[in-house]
Automatic annotation (TrEMBL), chains A, B, C, D:
<protein>
    <recommendedName>
        <fullName>N-acetyl-gamma-glutamyl-phosphate reductase</fullName>
        <ecNumber>1.2.1.38</ecNumber>
    </recommendedName>
</protein>
<dbReference type="InterPro" id="IPR023013">
    <property type="entry name" value="AGPR_AS"/>
</dbReference>
<dbReference type="Pfam" id="PF01118">
    <property type="entry name" value="Semialdhyde_dh"/>
</dbReference>
<dbReference type="InterPro" id="IPR000706">
    <property type="entry name" value="AGPR_type-1"/>
</dbReference>
<feature type="active site">
    <location>
        <position position="149"/>
    </location>
</feature>
<comment type="pathway">
    <text>Amino-acid biosynthesis; L-arginine biosynthesis; N(2)-acetyl-L-ornithine from L-glutamate: step 3/4.</text>
</comment>
<keyword id="KW-0963">Cytoplasm</keyword>
<dbReference type="InterPro" id="IPR058924">
    <property type="entry name" value="AGPR_dimerisation_dom"/>
</dbReference>
<dbReference type="GO" id="GO:0003942">
    <property type="term" value="F:N-acetyl-gamma-glutamyl-phosphate reductase activity"/>
</dbReference>
<comment type="function">
    <text>Catalyzes the NADPH-dependent reduction of N-acetyl-5-glutamyl phosphate to yield N-acetyl-L-glutamate 5-semialdehyde.</text>
</comment>
<dbReference type="InterPro" id="IPR050085">
    <property type="entry name" value="AGPR"/>
</dbReference>
<keyword id="KW-0560">Oxidoreductase</keyword>
<dbReference type="Pfam" id="PF22698">
    <property type="entry name" value="Semialdhyde_dhC_1"/>
</dbReference>
<keyword id="KW-0521">NADP</keyword>
<keyword id="KW-0055">Arginine biosynthesis</keyword>
<keyword id="KW-0028">Amino-acid biosynthesis</keyword>
<dbReference type="InterPro" id="IPR000534">
    <property type="entry name" value="Semialdehyde_DH_NAD-bd"/>
</dbReference>
Amino acid sequence: MKAALIGGTGYGSIELVRFINQHPYLEVGTVVSNSQAGVGFSEIYPHLSNIVDQPLETFNADRLAEENEIVFLATPSGVSSRLVPPLLDRGIKCIDLSGDFRLRSADEYESWYKHSPADEKYLKQATYGLSEIYPEKIKTSSLIANPGCYSTASILGLLPILKTNLAEYESIVIDAKSGVSGSGRGLSLTNHFAEINENLKAYKLGAHQHIPEIEQILSDESGGPIKISFTTHLVPMNRGIMCSIYVKLKETVTTNEVHQIYSEFYKINPFIRIRPEGNVPSTKEVLGSNYCDIGLHVDQRTNRLTIISVIDNLVKGAAGQAIQNVNLQNGWDERTGLIDIPLYP
Amino acid sequence: MKAALIGGTGYGSIELVRFINQHPYLEVGTVVSNSQAGVGFSEIYPHLSNIVDQPLETFNADRLAEENEIVFLATPSGVSSRLVPPLLDRGIKCIDLSGDFRLRSADEYESWYKHSPADEKYLKQATYGLSEIYPEKIKTSSLIANPGCYSTASILGLLPILKTNLAEYESIVIDAKSGVSGSGRGLSLTNHFAEINENLKAYKLGAHQHIPEIEQILSDESGGPIKISFTTHLVPMNRGIMCSIYVKLKETVTTNEVHQIYSEFYKINPFIRIRPEGNVPSTKEVLGSNYCDIGLHVDQRTNRLTIISVIDNLVKGAAGQAIQNVNLQNGWDERTGLIDIPLYP
Amino acid sequence: MKAALIGGTGYGSIELVRFINQHPYLEVGTVVSNSQAGVGFSEIYPHLSNIVDQPLETFNADRLAEENEIVFLATPSGVSSRLVPPLLDRGIKCIDLSGDFRLRSADEYESWYKHSPADEKYLKQATYGLSEIYPEKIKTSSLIANPGCYSTASILGLLPILKTNLAEYESIVIDAKSGVSGSGRGLSLTNHFAEINENLKAYKLGAHQHIPEIEQILSDESGGPIKISFTTHLVPMNRGIMCSIYVKLKETVTTNEVHQIYSEFYKINPFIRIRPEGNVPSTKEVLGSNYCDIGLHVDQRTNRLTIISVIDNLVKGAAGQAIQNVNLQNGWDERTGLIDIPLYP
Amino acid sequence: MKAALIGGTGYGSIELVRFINQHPYLEVGTVVSNSQAGVGFSEIYPHLSNIVDQPLETFNADRLAEENEIVFLATPSGVSSRLVPPLLDRGIKCIDLSGDFRLRSADEYESWYKHSPADEKYLKQATYGLSEIYPEKIKTSSLIANPGCYSTASILGLLPILKTNLAEYESIVIDAKSGVSGSGRGLSLTNHFAEINENLKAYKLGAHQHIPEIEQILSDESGGPIKISFTTHLVPMNRGIMCSIYVKLKETVTTNEVHQIYSEFYKINPFIRIRPEGNVPSTKEVLGSNYCDIGLHVDQRTNRLTIISVIDNLVKGAAGQAIQNVNLQNGWDERTGLIDIPLYP
């Protein structure tokens, strides 16, 4: 099955290439980059030499639909809202890695993203592609809104406790930390090596565009309207997200009881690993892989649950989950092409 | 004035050397390291070649008291509780950079540190050396318990809001991140380069020994008994601490109003810089210097205040604050020897 | 085919696990670690949770031979010289990743490694496992001495030019740089994070134990006795080796002509990528993969050829090449299990 | 004495601010940045808050000459060749940190820098500001061409051996490695964090613009025309240069004899530290300081001398040496304002 990539020169896109290359049923099809059309892919990314050397192409919906069965869009926000409609109209399945189809409310999109939203007609067709939570909807959907990286780690870390009656909804604090690849390949002073190396930076306090996405899903799943305090930090490393999540508990429970709740919740999910009591995951332990590892600790002194949820932002937070969703759509084992052991050290 | 160093081969100690070297009234005296006595200081630390080449010595209270006017103890916990008494008895002033004299309660020390506590007689003589908060006590004290690195950033970040009636005491969450030098020069797998580089690690969930110290001071200053949720993380960089602090507010206030509270609170303190609204400090912006920079943001959606407090863990979190305290003790300008501009980039 | 691992807790060993896991014909068999026998593999390496959880075992030649068809030894030098003989005697194939069987001369081993050498009888059975150069010998050998990491990058970079009459033999300078994982997981001050992070260190000037190995192969292949100047450096990153190699040329040739010599030399080797003129490889462009990428430049001003040869020290420099050799031994496509695209960024 | 800074927003400039701030006889005067005139210095560099908050200004030769006694130019190449003449004509001393006045030959400048050279009249007035080698000329010069960072480390490392009859001139290979701050604050993909972190990159093979500068000085000082092989590498760290230098010896000498030659050569130079035999400097051991540390090793097997020369590229390689030159010009102790102990770790 040929898979096209749009936004071919970003980091999300080259991770897709890595997984498609080792996937038994997928093959790299058209690679679109309007800004660098005609240039060979491996001229831009020499690590792909002798592997994917094909030239980049311009966007052409007809040709894309003709030559590919599926399209991955790894474009900046505000782009796929315009590119997805002509593709869906031509009957091709779309996996959108941007935020353009994640929020049900067009108004909310506009207020957080500062772009015009996608057309309501297409917004309604989108399924939020959090693989572990919505596998059935994903199977039958032609438009997958692949979740944000912070959102994936946050929601997977919070849902099991929210589904009980134990959590105080208004107490949720998410302190999120990310490696720098999360902000892409576009040049900016923030991503300039000498500025962020040996540095730790908080950014977008209370203003990150993943906030409404997290609140939408948490509210859907828990019943109550949920508002979170959410702060993002840039850590001087390439990959990895850690969300340290704090939730006040209504009753006294032990770490062990919470551990059971989580283990039960994710018992059929091969990519979620709940760490045993006393063991907390670090980001490197999922590097390059599609795992989300979760550690749990109840602080008896304050009756607050601390959840440490880690993913590789480019894999479970982007390309890996996109492949997992394609596997679900096609009825393949969801692990297909994703069996990599984390790269350690 | 000759200043002795005990625990001479740790990172805290070589920062003391750096500041003493540029201090007009202090001079490096005896340097004690029982494990490496006889070896030249610059053989262990070649960056000190031609600057401080003198041999390390063994601990001898009489000789120390004879040849020095002040002693800095930069030893692991459980050591200075035994070394300080003979020094105090000989009339020499002590600045202890370890945790041995920070907690008033010997029981609490034992339960968090898992060592025998210091003798009550000496515990009572200790002054908690948070320079901005206790300058008067410091001036007249012969035993300064220099604050912990996390404690310094946390307490300085929290006190101004706690001194108002705006904060909900039971809502405090401190998500603390540190560079790796904070865990010293002792070898461990956690500090092995390939294990922590390109990695982010949470550790000691709810169990860090700085918790009782922070709660002691916050409770003293606010009136109410305060318990905090406190989580520590290791960031792949050498220096720097960031405490991201979350406090629920009882009333609706603006970031600007909080900014005024903080600016007023610290208006006479040269090493505290309150950042203007919309500007958040990063750890590199205080690297190598004695500054504590604080950024503030009120999230109107959740009525929670986020405080970002950064220091260099080895400077304001250790050696720099120790020098600042000696300056206060001696009636010198508190900036003496500490005027370094942060090293950037 | 079951493959045992000896020295199971080192970095070389977990890379072997990663490749065996994605290899269609190999399976992880016994994992030996005398020091940690009985402990679960994933307790030591949590990134292996739910993947390889089996307990570590003690060394037992009979049981190893019974339950496995092949043994990888990833032990410190001086260990496999003692463990390999009983295994070979029991008819099991051995791939030794240490230096114990690389040098033909027992004396030279002793003088560079400061250990007793292996028994001559077994030394003679060893084949130097540089896959691209000795594929035929590897096919028929039961004991592969897998090349050193620096040696692999150096020899692959030098051989094509040495096989011509263009190089001045006595002019060879190899300036080698490695990521820190190359020095293993054993604790030492050199590998302590705060010491090597933001630092660049030269070490073992003219004394690295890979020197005799490189000279042995270069001399074998070129005819003349070759002595090299070889300096190693530690770079603050986890993985990657770059050898910058300088060779004086006897005649005037262009970069383009040298490029043709190299391309021709390696035309059948899928893991060697000769970069086009003007393009020089960086270490990240082979990260996690079995590639050796080579860039070439003739400096017309000095008539000296500069060769930039890069590998991942744990892959082509250790575990990956070991798997490649097993593929050759068994008549499988040499790329089997090794098709990973480099992890970028 | 007021010192103006031109090119005020680069890294060289903020290092100048750091040293001027701790210099007893210098004071920050006008800070020029045409692109950001009117903006406060500490808005661009928040680490300067409360220290240097003054607004940036546009270039105006009259005003500069009126209000300052000295001007530091830390501008990209091709700029100071135009700015220096009007300043010199107004009688103000200039320290140029760019390459515009380093090469005597205007033709050579044009061929390596691809810019128009400075006017010959002003070129002739320039003194090459390598403090240890040309102190007398520096004292009487109004225009100092401050050496390049690579050049400083290379020339200081090579001169003592070249001044003997021991070195084979045509054998010199310099393998140079630099932290990323060396390429400045301008945005480029090469300096994008995720591209260079965990990566090692060779660049400008045989084409770096410091080559003619090094050759000019080495040839001047040794008598013979000298051509070097020179390769530069980017190391994933902020600061530090290491030049690993290889020289074939004409006679057999010991490391100890070479050590004596170097110690003698630099015996009156406080910033040059020749390491004892067996001890090799690493870049962190000079971090933030004006030292150049040199390690030496004669490889008896190849009769080649290896010299490891390290500096902080922004200090001895730029701002620190500039201050040292101003000290020399004014007859002050050359260490004035430069006594910082390296920042370790």
